[in-house]
TrEMBL record:
Domain Metallo-beta-lactamase, residue spans: 19-222
InterPro entries in alphabetical order: Metallo-B-lactamas, RibonucZ/Hydroxyglut_hydro
Name assigned to this protein: MBL fold metallo-hydrolase
Alphabetic keyword roster: Endonuclease, Hydrolase, Nuclease, Zinc
Species, as recorded: Paenibacillus germinis
Role summary: Counteracts the endogenous Pycsar antiviral defense system. Phosphodiesterase that enables metal-dependent hydrolysis of host cyclic nucleotide Pycsar defense signals such as cCMP and cUMP.
Cell membrane listed as a keyword: no
Catalyzed reactions: 3',5'-cyclic CMP + H2O = CMP + H(+); 3',5'-cyclic UMP + H2O = UMP + H(+)
Length: 250
């Protein structure tokens, strides 16, 4: 089974020319979404993927550019596709916050029997740091990474060989020792703040300090609108583009 990642968006939270960073893990048998930001439903529409063709959604953390499209997907499955639900893969702690602090405002509707996350999604709780088979041929490991202090955030290992940072601060030890030297990940999709201080995201300046053999595996995502000014200035790392498809190891 060949496995691909297709980027649905590659922009930062405030980018206007790029959609919110999210991705589709694709094969002939599945479409699994990583995050679902406010612009993700539009991106799915543009590549011809309908809500009922999504087999599940993985959630990295709660910011609108990562979960802002969930209400639309769930409501369309419920109302347009007649009571359908997709799977939601997330940790237990994230599930509580996602419903209570984000989705409930728009989706709480006890009169019609919709008052819990489970009323809209088939919620599959995933344990941190445990590689978990979520579909035939797809194992995901959620690892807790630092984005904003005291805020839950997870990066993902996909089949043990591909690393998807979601939103994280720079962590050299994780990238070099764990991801490349120990796990031999060949593909790293990493968020990248192009300029300024990287309080909550890895900056390009920080990522450029990685050894070349690590940089060669890195695709940069979650960047600002001025990305074109940085083409040719990313060392051995490459920008990944909206709707681009890359093959990843099974
Ligand atoms: N402490 C914070 C918190 C948030 N932010 C900005 O808000 C965005 C939310 O989505 P993000 O993709 O995590 O990027 C965050 C920052 O741009 C920020 O700059 N500093
Ligand atoms: Zn983000
Ligand atoms: Zn974030």
């Amino acid at each position: 089974m060949s496995l691909q990642i297709q980027m649905l968006g590659t922009g930062s939270a405030f980018a206007k020319t790029f959609y919110n960073t999210s991705a589709l893990i694709r094969s002939n048998e599945m479409n699994i979404l990583i995050d679902c930001g406010a612009t993700t439903p539009r991106s799915l529409h543009e590549i011809g993927v309908q809500p009922d063709q999504i087999d599940g959604i993985i959630i990295s953390h709660i910011h609108a550019d990562h979960v802002g499209g969930l209400e639309e997907i769930a409501f369309r499955l419920l109302y347009q596709y007649k009571n359908k639900k997709t799977k939601l893969f997330l940790t237990e702690s994230l599930a509580g916050v996602l419903w209570e602090n984000t989705l409930k405002g728009g989706m709480y509707n006890p009169a019609d029997g919709f008052s819990r996350l489970e009323d809209y999604f088939e919620v599959i709780l995933i344990e941190e740091n445990v590689p978990t088979s979520i579909q035939p041929g797809l194992t995901i490991e959620f690892i807790s990474t630092l984005h904003i202090p005291h805020k839950l955030n997870y990066s993902l290992f996909i089949n043990g060989r591909t690393f998807y940072s979601a939103d994280t601060q720079f962590n050299e030890e994780l990238l070099v020792q764990e991801i490349v030297n120990k796990r031999n990940c060949h593909t790293i999709l990493h968020d990248c703040q192009l300029s300024g201080n990287g309080f909550i995201h890895a900056t390009l300046e920080e990522l450029l300090t990685l050894p070349d053999y690590v940089q060669e595996r890195v695709y940069l995502m979650h960047y600002d609108d001025d990305m074109m000014n940085f083409v040719g200035k990313t060392g051995s790392m490459t920008f990944i583009h909206q709707h681009e498809v890359i093959e990843i190891p099974e």
